[in-house]
């Protein structure tokens, strides 16, 4: 007579918590490692207050996908500067967290496994970027969902502050005083 044990579930609640904790630690370590190793320049790109050169490549790849259906592509420089002003207005702690997010997205070691974009952001297709955003939005890891929300909120806030976006959403503009 053979005795068989019941098959445990593939991923228990405890297993999910351990996995989430490990993934969070990995992301935090990767971001910190990139900052400490000097993988990312801490100085802003030429003509910007907070956005760095690596950040610009990421944001310029995200804009056409996140703001598809708007005239955001036509106001690229204005949108980048509006986003730069938003980042510069963040508290030092929030700016540090945002930079860590950009560092994780910029480092090839973390970008590939976390986003599915194995090459540079300049060569990423719209379909790859859309898949990355969907992957993070639907992730079981709260950290990735928060990263997704942060990226979208930053880009949307910068876009909807521009007068060019007001007609698109039916806003007549601020009242004349």
Automatic annotation (TrEMBL):
Keyword terms, alphabetized: Signal
Signal peptide: 1-30
Name listed for the protein in its UniProt record: Twin-arginine translocation pathway signal protein
């Amino acid at each position: 007579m053979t005795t068989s044990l019941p098959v445990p579930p593939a991923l228990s609640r405890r297993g999910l918590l351990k996995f989430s904790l490990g993934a969070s630690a990995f992301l935090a370590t990767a971001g910190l490692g990139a900052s400490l190793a000097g993988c990312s320049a801490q100085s802003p790109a030429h003509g910007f207050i907070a956005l760095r050169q690596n950040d610009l490549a990421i944001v310029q790849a995200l804009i056409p996908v996140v703001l598809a259906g708007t005239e955001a592509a036509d106001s690229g420089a204005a949108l980048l500067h509006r986003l730069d002003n938003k980042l510069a207005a963040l508290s030092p702690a929030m700016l540090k967290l945002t930079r860590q997010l950009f560092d994780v997205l910029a480092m090839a070691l973390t970008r590939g496994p976390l986003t599915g974009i194995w090459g540079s952001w300049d060569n990423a297709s719209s379909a790859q970027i859309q898949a990355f955003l969907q992957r993070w939005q639907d992730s079981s890891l709260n950290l990735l969902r928060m990263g997704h929300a942060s990226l979208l909120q930053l880009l949307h806030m910068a876009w909807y502050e521009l007068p060019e976006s007001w007609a698109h959403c039916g806003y007549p503009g601020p009242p004349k005083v």
